[in-house]
Design goal:
Length: 197
């Protein structure tokens, strides 16, 4: 029994290695540009070995997106605190979101953002519930800003704008060049919030 558990743990580790390597390759080259051979090479495996863990490249993409959504939701829930002032809660959400998409090694959500169309409809439907939960946390925070007088206009539009603007940073942000994620978060907050009356 102990041997079986040890082997299973090793299998899970190899599966995780494949998912992490694929996330980096999908982010750098796009889903279509990353071959199964490249994924296998990145983890020191024979070309066909990833198929022991995954039925197809599509299944690897699904695993990458699932891991990104799981990590993102977990980190986001951790900064949501009842009773926080609306602007303080917004600032915390902005900072954690920037970390989720821009910190070194966090390739999962950027892959989802720019390769969502590569998922088939069945997998998109399965993943949307988790994505909707993430959006709901943000919508509540933006609604709070509106009620507190920090933000005017349509709150759904405001949520889409702030997340869209931050997500686009994936295309131009360079770690260790210019702003840190902390100073970038402060700039995002300052840009989107009006002065409290």
């Amino acid at each position: 029994m102990a041997r079986v558990l040890k082997e299973q743990k090793h299998d899970d580790g190899r599966r995780g290695d494949i998912v992490r390597a694929a996330a980096k390759l999908f982010r750098d080259k796009g889903y279509d540009g990353a071959s199964m051979r490249a994924i296998a090479n990145a983890v020191g495996m024979q070309c066909g070995s990833p198929f022991y863990h995954f039925a197809s490249k599509q299944d690897i993409l699904v695993a990458v997106v699932e891991e990104g959504l799981r990590q993102g939701l977990e980190k986001t829930r951790a900064v949501v605190k009842p009773g926080l002032a609306a602007d303080v809660q917004f600032r915390a959400l902005v900072r954690v979101h920037l970390g989720i998409i821009l910190e070194d090694g966090n390739d999962f959500i950027p892959v989802m953002l720019y390769n969502w169309r590569c998922l088939d409809e069945v997998h998109q439907r399965r993943l949307i519930a988790t994505k909707d939960e993430y959006d709901a946390i943000w919508q509540e925070a933006v609604n709070g800003l509106h009620l507190a007088g920090f933000l005017g206009g349509d709150t759904k539009f405001a949520r889409l704008m702030v997340l869209g603007a931050m997500n686009f940073m994936v295309t131009w942000y360079k770690p260790k060049k210019g702003d840190t994620l902390d100073t970038l978060a402060e700039k995002v907050v300052a840009f989107f919030l009006t002065q409290h009356a």
